[in-house]
Amino acid sequence: MTRPPSTPTIDIHAHLLLPEVEETVAGRPGLVEAKGLDARRNGPAALAVNGPMVGARVPKLTDVAVRLAAMDAAGVDVQLVSPSPSHYHYWAEPQLAEQVCRLTNQSTAAHCAKAPDRLHGLGLVPLQHPGLAVALLNHALDQGLAGVEISSHAPGPGSTRAVELSDPRLTRFWARAEETGALIFLHPFGCTLDERLDQWYLSNTVGQPTENAVALSHLIFSGVLDRHPGLKLIAAHGGGYLPTHIGRSDHAWRARPDARDCAREPSSYLKQLYFDSLVHDPHVLRELVRAAGPDRVLLGSDYPFDMGTEDPLGALRAADLPDADFHAIRGGNAAALLNLA
């Protein structure tokens, strides 16, 4: 494959660890309970692996020089850097949640500013407090970030209902994201199937694609994407199970009156969304490209975690796509989203 010389290779799924955020929440009410829930959902075997795995990757997650060297080794020109989802802290009360998001936004921007031609960043908003989301999206954009990262849902504040992505309380957030052209990176953290997935790392291998499918289905079936057709939302992990099983959603839309709150068949909305290429199977990647369109898939590695890939270009090549599709996914689509010349 020949490479168009003007098109950079762009990895849109790469993470950053911010120790200052963890220092801010240390000892706060709610943290112990949140960690306990995470422990139950993952199980002891996964926790025993996770600690050393993350510890060994701290330099890659914090040191810009190490990050750039890894990018060079992988043939990546530009990364879109998002905070580790462990920084969401959706348990936090409003004042602490705002502090966490502002600190995350500022620290992510500072990290990227050390290599501005190669690093672009995403911040956070407190999904559990929808009333704060617009102001903190604005704050992220004011720092020069491209947008924000969110999970698939958040616990409701206090005893209120969980905040799903279809929640009317998020209407102003979606409107502001559409108005500004901000990127919204959907990256689940945790799975509500809880202890059913607490062995064999099912909390991640099954939980992540499940959460993606549920969250995207909320956006589609509720009509959020009808009301905000210009929303720039990128789903991590190829959108989970939804793109390859969207036929069942289409059938429900046709057969069930209670599944008709969206204007069109659900499969049509895949072409309104963006997806990263991290699906770990060339056959699945080809199907994702077929279902969503080659202009809607972006290169992603999940750098530097063990459930990612150190060779995202190799994984993309394995799908044996047409040259034009390969280069669009390699960097052309992301360059357009990021407004890179």
Task: Characterise the protein shown here.
The protein is an alpha/beta fold. It has one domain: TIM Barrel. Helices cover 46% and strands 12% of the residues. The strands form two sheets. The chain has an eight-stranded parallel sheet. A two-stranded antiparallel sheet has the order 5-6. Helix 1 (19-25) runs antiparallel to helix 6 (94-113), helix 6 (94-113) runs parallel beside helix 7 and helix 7 (130-142) packs parallel to helix 8.
Instruction: Tell me the CATH architecture.
Output: Alpha-Beta Barrel
- Number of alpha- plus pi-helical segments: 15
Largest sheet: 8 strands, parallel
Q: How much beta, percentage-wise? A: 5-15%
Assigned CATH superfamily? Metal-dependent hydrolases
Gyration radius (Cα, Å) is 19 Å
Which class best fits the helix and strand makeup? alpha/beta
Mean pLDDT: 95
Labels describing this entry:
about 350 residues; 15 helices; ACMSD; hydrolase activity; about 10% strand; eight-stranded parallel sheet; alpha/beta; Amidohydrolase; lyase; 10 strands; Metal_Hydrolase; two-stranded antiparallel ribbon; TIM Barrel; single chain
Task: Set down the secondary structure blueprint.
Blueprint: E1 10-16, H1 19-25, H2 31-42, H3 44-56, H4 58-62, H5 64-74, E2 78-83, H6 94-113, E3 119-124, H7 130-142, E4 147-150, E5 153-154, E6 163-164, H8 171-180, E7 183-186, H9 202-205, H10 207-221, H11 224-227, E8 232-235, H12 246-255, E9 274-276, H13 282-292, E10 297-298, H14 312-318, H15 323-337
Parallel strand pairs: 1-2, 2-3, 3-4, 4-7, 7-8, 8-9, 9-10
Antiparallel strand pairs: 5-6
Helix pairs in contact: 1-6, 6-7, 7-8
